[in-house]
Amino acid sequence: MSDLLKDVMKRSIDSEFYSPFPKGYRPGRTKYIVVFGTVISGIGKGIFAGSLGKLLRYKGFTISPIKFDGYLNQDAGTLNPYRHGEVFVLEDGTESDMDLGTYERFLDINLTKDNYITNGKLFQEILNKERRGDYLGRDVQVIPHVTGEIKLFLRKLAVKSKSDIVLFEVGGTVGDLESMFCIEAVRQLMYEEGKENVCAIAVTYIMEPGFLGEQKSKAAQLGIKSLLSSGIQPDIIACRAKNEVTEKIRQKISLYSNVELRDVLSIPDVGSIYFVPEMIRKTGVAESVMKKLKLGSRISKKEEESKWQKWSKFTGRIKNPKNRVVIGMFGKYTNLRDSYASILKALEHAGANLDTAVEIKWIETTDIEEGKLKVEEALKGIDGALIAPGFGKRGTEGKIASIKYIRQKNIPYLGVCYGMQMAIIEFARNVCGLKDANSTEIDSRTRHQVIDILPEQKKIEGLGGNMRLGAKEVLVKKGTMAYELYGRKKMIKERFRHRYEVNPEYIPLLAKKGMVFSGKHPEYDIMQIMELPGKRFFVGSQFHPEFTSKLLHPNPLYLGFVRAALGSGLSKL
Ligand code: GLN
């Protein structure tokens, strides 16, 4: 332990070294990797970090990822997916950024609230402490209190997870006002923990304007300069670019940043994010990180190799699939593909396991609703239809009209959350004869409220935090398709994010007309999976099966759905 850290740890709250430490913190026990973005956001910082985590995990290290987001929302729950991408729900119900989904998928772990921090959450914590008098009369300042809180958050994760490495992704780009003090906290962390315990990585972007036809490094240089001027010397620079980054550009970056040429990495675009880990493996980045952090090998080369072999079996199938299937994605955010990130991944996982490329036909249900697109037209050339989750009225009549056709034409169907609710409304209207069946979310005064708000949620008001969230148990009914798909397990666990549910008053009628509720709450009459027997595949789930899907372990509902779509051969007709 450095003398400085000893000092920091033992000084009182009055000292300028103020920095709170969690109980049981052992300096040096956990190493830190910090990933920053420069130039622009959206270049796959999370994917790079997740891939690096995977490389290290396959070397036998335990990794705890954590993402910082600069916005003042306490979590991602109230964010519009159209602006921000999908809200990823963790097991404990935390509504987080979609990068946490990337980490779960790459590292095959379940994350919690401890792996996600926003400025909103941070400030809330600080203001609570201030009110409780925890700062003992001191003026509460950005430095050392806000920075101290960030370091505390990271160190708490180190203690709680007992991981070898905490992998910290700083959201946004260096220079953003809202992440400035987070970067300062990292600088302090590097100073306190010592050089061999923190590895800093800058992910940057090399431009290649079409009219020039060559790569340009100036923007990247400026971005890295900005990081350097914050007092952070990166150890590794990952250069994202459309094409392979040239040696000349890498040399320039190296010269301007004091980073050895071999640690200036070229990370060009690839067809699937699942190709990234193998690509960056070739750069030797994991070995560079280990050298910097003075970490020795944990497992044999042979063991590591066998893990990669298993992984590349699946990525190979993504690269060279034998079959092709077209899935119609019915939603209202189809302009922003990130809104459905986990669904697309879950389809990809199912596809890879079936040696099949899953192509997506995007269908904007508001177009159907407004008469701009005919249902028959929308459904042409698809093998299966996925009705996406959603909120609010817009696009719902388009979804319901599509489901009617999907059901009648026996097109494989998977309804996720709102998608299942839409199928129930359609069935109630067209099979049970309840013409004005609807959800109270769409029409609060409709006569047949087949989808209604959960009694337990009625008590809670206001936006934010009033949904049924997180992983819950689902009791699966014997003899159903869901039961077979889940490997004849009686009890499964899936993740939820909803307010409304099937109105229990209508369950007997729906069941009488042939709808099977194959999954329900273990105690209450909350319906969680529905299916129509006799169809190729007609399944809806109140939960989001995509949140638990992994490349090597696809979610059973997605697997069954893609298999049925493949078997239907409809797109070839
Ligand atoms: N709007 C619906 C509800 O709140 C469905 C939510 C969803 O699709 N995630 O129950």
Description:
The chain has 573 residues and is of the alpha/beta class. It folds into two domains: 3-206 and 218-310, P-loop containing nucleotide triphosphate hydrolases (Rossmann fold, 3-Layer(aba) Sandwich), CATH 3.40.50; 321-572, Class I glutamine amidotransferase (GATase) domain (Rossmann fold). 38% of the residues lie in helices and 20% in strands. It is built from 21 helices and 21 strands. It has a nine-stranded mixed sheet with strand order 11-10-12-13-21-20-19-16-17, with helices on both faces. The protein has a seven-stranded parallel sheet with strand order 5-2-6-1-7-8-9, with helices on both faces. A hairpin with a 5-residue loop joins strand 3 (88-89) and strand 4. The model has no long low-confidence stretch (mean pLDDT 93). Bound molecules: glutamine. Glutamine is lined by residues 389-391, 417-418, 441, 497-500. The site of glutamine has 10 residues, from strand 17.
User: What's the total helix number?
Assistant: 21
Q: Please state the overall shape, judged from the principal axes of the Cα atoms.
A: globular
**What separation lies between the terminal Cα atoms?**
69 Å
Kindly name the structural category: alpha/beta
On the 0 to 100 scale, the average pLDDT is 93
For the largest beta-sheet, the strand count, sense and barrel status come to:
9 strands, mixed
CATH class group of the largest domain: Alpha Beta
- How many independent structural domains? 2
Q: CATH superfamily assignment of the largest domain?
A: P-loop containing nucleotide triphosphate hydrolases
| Chain oligomer state | single chain
Total beta strands = 21
CATH topology grouping of the largest domain: Rossmann fold
* Strand residue percentage: 15-25%
For the largest beta sheet, what order do the strands appear in spatially?
A: 11-10-12-13-21-20-19-16-17
